[in-house]
Amino acid sequence: MVSNLAHDKARAIAEAVPDPELPVLTLGDLGIIRDVAASGTGVEVTITPTYSGCPAMNTMGMDISLALAEAGFGPVRIKTTLSPAWTTDWISAEGRAKLQAFGIAPPGPRGNDAPVACPLCGSTNTGEISHFGSTACKALWRCLACREPFDHFKCH
Ligand SMILES: [Zn+2]
Asked: What is the pLDDT of residues 25-61, one digit of tens each?
Protein backbone atom coordinates (compact mmCIF):
# COMPACT_ATOMS: atom_id res chain seq x y z
CA MET A 1 0.00 0.00 0.00
CA VAL A 2 1.49 3.30 -1.08
CA SER A 3 0.52 6.39 0.86
CA ASN A 4 -0.72 9.60 -0.71
CA LEU A 5 2.52 11.06 0.55
CA ALA A 6 4.46 8.97 -1.98
CA HIS A 7 2.20 10.22 -4.77
CA ASP A 8 2.68 13.83 -3.71
CA LYS A 9 6.43 13.43 -3.38
CA ALA A 10 6.77 11.72 -6.77
CA ARG A 11 4.65 14.43 -8.36
CA ALA A 12 6.67 17.23 -6.75
CA ILE A 13 9.91 15.65 -8.00
CA ALA A 14 8.56 15.24 -11.56
CA GLU A 15 7.22 18.81 -11.61
CA ALA A 16 10.53 20.25 -10.39
CA VAL A 17 12.47 18.85 -13.38
CA PRO A 18 13.69 21.75 -15.54
CA ASP A 19 12.55 22.05 -19.15
CA PRO A 20 15.50 20.92 -21.33
CA GLU A 21 14.94 23.81 -23.76
CA LEU A 22 14.08 26.52 -21.25
CA PRO A 23 15.77 25.59 -17.96
CA VAL A 24 14.25 28.68 -16.32
CA LEU A 25 10.95 26.78 -16.36
CA THR A 26 10.13 23.52 -14.63
CA LEU A 27 7.97 20.88 -16.28
CA GLY A 28 5.38 21.79 -13.64
CA ASP A 29 5.46 25.43 -14.81
CA LEU A 30 4.96 24.26 -18.39
CA GLY A 31 1.94 22.23 -17.32
CA ILE A 32 2.94 19.11 -19.26
CA ILE A 33 2.73 16.67 -16.34
CA ARG A 34 -0.74 15.18 -16.51
CA ASP A 35 -0.57 12.46 -13.91
CA VAL A 36 1.84 10.79 -11.49
CA ALA A 37 0.83 7.45 -10.03
CA ALA A 38 3.08 5.78 -7.47
CA SER A 39 2.32 2.15 -6.66
CA GLY A 40 4.09 -0.84 -5.15
CA THR A 41 5.48 -1.69 -8.57
CA GLY A 42 6.89 1.71 -9.47
CA VAL A 43 5.85 5.12 -10.71
CA GLU A 44 3.94 5.94 -13.85
CA VAL A 45 4.23 9.51 -15.12
CA THR A 46 1.90 10.72 -17.85
CA ILE A 47 3.09 13.72 -19.85
CA THR A 48 1.68 15.65 -22.79
CA PRO A 49 4.27 16.87 -25.32
CA THR A 50 4.47 20.63 -25.76
CA TYR A 51 4.18 20.11 -29.50
CA SER A 52 4.28 17.03 -31.70
CA GLY A 53 7.74 16.01 -32.73
CA CYS A 54 9.38 18.16 -30.09
CA PRO A 55 12.93 16.78 -29.85
CA ALA A 56 13.00 17.68 -26.16
CA MET A 57 10.31 15.12 -25.28
CA ASN A 58 12.67 12.14 -24.96
CA THR A 59 15.00 14.24 -22.84
CA MET A 60 12.10 15.25 -20.60
CA GLY A 61 11.11 11.61 -20.05
CA MET A 62 14.68 10.63 -19.23
CA ASP A 63 15.15 13.58 -16.90
CA ILE A 64 11.94 12.69 -15.02
CA SER A 65 13.01 9.02 -14.74
CA LEU A 66 16.44 10.00 -13.44
CA ALA A 67 15.09 12.48 -10.89
CA LEU A 68 12.61 9.92 -9.54
CA ALA A 69 15.21 7.13 -9.48
CA GLU A 70 17.60 9.36 -7.53
CA ALA A 71 14.84 9.93 -4.96
CA GLY A 72 14.41 6.16 -4.58
CA PHE A 73 11.37 5.72 -6.83
CA GLY A 74 11.36 3.08 -9.48
CA PRO A 75 10.97 1.56 -11.87
CA VAL A 76 9.64 4.61 -13.68
CA ARG A 77 7.38 4.38 -16.68
CA ILE A 78 6.74 7.44 -18.86
CA LYS A 79 3.48 7.54 -20.76
CA THR A 80 2.64 10.26 -23.24
CA THR A 81 -0.89 11.34 -23.97
CA LEU A 82 -1.70 13.60 -26.90
CA SER A 83 -5.27 14.39 -25.95
CA PRO A 84 -6.16 16.97 -24.89
CA ALA A 85 -3.32 18.68 -26.72
CA TRP A 86 -1.01 20.93 -24.76
CA THR A 87 -1.34 24.63 -25.40
CA THR A 88 0.57 27.59 -24.04
CA ASP A 89 -2.52 28.29 -21.91
CA TRP A 90 -1.27 25.46 -19.66
CA ILE A 91 1.82 27.43 -18.64
CA SER A 92 1.28 28.49 -15.03
CA ALA A 93 1.15 32.12 -13.91
CA GLU A 94 4.41 31.48 -12.08
CA GLY A 95 5.92 30.08 -15.29
CA ARG A 96 4.88 33.21 -17.23
CA ALA A 97 6.42 35.43 -14.56
CA LYS A 98 9.67 33.42 -14.76
CA LEU A 99 9.78 33.77 -18.57
CA GLN A 100 9.25 37.51 -18.28
CA ALA A 101 11.96 37.83 -15.60
CA PHE A 102 14.28 35.86 -17.87
CA GLY A 103 13.71 38.33 -20.72
CA ILE A 104 11.42 36.06 -22.75
CA ALA A 105 8.03 37.46 -23.71
CA PRO A 106 5.49 34.89 -22.49
CA PRO A 107 2.83 33.63 -24.91
CA GLY A 108 -0.46 35.50 -24.96
CA PRO A 109 -3.84 33.78 -24.75
CA ARG A 110 -4.49 31.60 -27.77
CA GLY A 111 -6.41 33.02 -30.68
CA ASN A 112 -5.65 36.50 -29.44
CA ASP A 113 -3.49 38.69 -31.64
CA ALA A 114 -2.59 40.97 -28.75
CA PRO A 115 0.67 42.82 -29.34
CA VAL A 116 3.79 41.23 -27.86
CA ALA A 117 5.07 43.35 -24.99
CA CYS A 118 8.81 43.89 -24.55
CA PRO A 119 9.85 41.91 -21.44
CA LEU A 120 12.41 44.60 -20.62
CA CYS A 121 10.47 47.87 -20.81
CA GLY A 122 6.87 46.74 -21.36
CA SER A 123 6.47 48.64 -24.65
CA THR A 124 4.20 47.02 -27.24
CA ASN A 125 6.06 48.85 -29.99
CA THR A 126 7.76 45.61 -31.04
CA GLY A 127 8.41 43.67 -34.21
CA GLU A 128 9.41 40.15 -35.19
CA ILE A 129 12.93 39.82 -36.59
CA SER A 130 12.98 36.08 -37.17
CA HIS A 131 10.22 33.48 -36.74
CA PHE A 132 12.80 30.94 -35.55
CA GLY A 133 14.96 31.99 -32.64
CA SER A 134 17.44 29.98 -30.59
CA THR A 135 14.98 27.05 -30.37
CA ALA A 136 11.96 26.05 -32.43
CA CYS A 137 9.64 27.28 -29.67
CA LYS A 138 10.98 30.80 -29.70
CA ALA A 139 10.88 33.64 -32.20
CA LEU A 140 13.33 36.51 -32.16
CA TRP A 141 11.70 39.91 -31.62
CA ARG A 142 12.99 43.42 -31.19
CA CYS A 143 11.66 46.27 -29.11
CA LEU A 144 11.48 49.52 -31.05
CA ALA A 145 11.27 51.57 -27.84
CA CYS A 146 14.36 50.35 -25.97
CA ARG A 147 15.92 48.74 -29.09
CA GLU A 148 16.65 45.47 -27.31
CA PRO A 149 16.11 42.13 -29.03
CA PHE A 150 14.20 39.49 -27.05
CA ASP A 151 12.81 35.98 -27.40
CA HIS A 152 9.09 35.37 -27.69
CA PHE A 153 7.78 31.95 -26.63
CA LYS A 154 5.44 31.15 -29.50
CA CYS A 155 4.65 27.42 -29.45
CA HIS A 156 1.08 26.40 -28.89
ZN1 LIG B 1 11.78 47.42 -24.65
From this structure: 999 999 999 999 988 889 999 999 876 556 677 789 9
Q: Give me ligand 1 centre to Cα 156, in Å.
A: 24
126 C-alpha to center of ligand 1: Å?
8
Q: Is 85 domain-assigned?
A: no
Nearest CA to 43 out of 10, 84, 88, 86 is that of 10
Query: Among the three residues 80, 102, 117, which one is the final residue of a domain in this structure?
Result: 80
Give pairs for 72-76: CB < 8 Å, separation 24+. 73/6, 73/10, 73/13, 73/38, 73/42, 73/43, 74/42, 74/43, 75/41, 75/42, 75/43, 76/42, 76/43, 76/44, 76/45
C-alpha span between 155 and 19 (Å, rounded)? 14
pTM score of the predicted model: 0.81
Q: Does residue 73 sit in the same domain as residue 97?
A: no
- Going from the Cα of 9 to the center of ligand 1, the distance in angstroms, rounded, reads 40
Q: How far is the CA of 64 from the centre of ligand 1 (A)?
A: 36
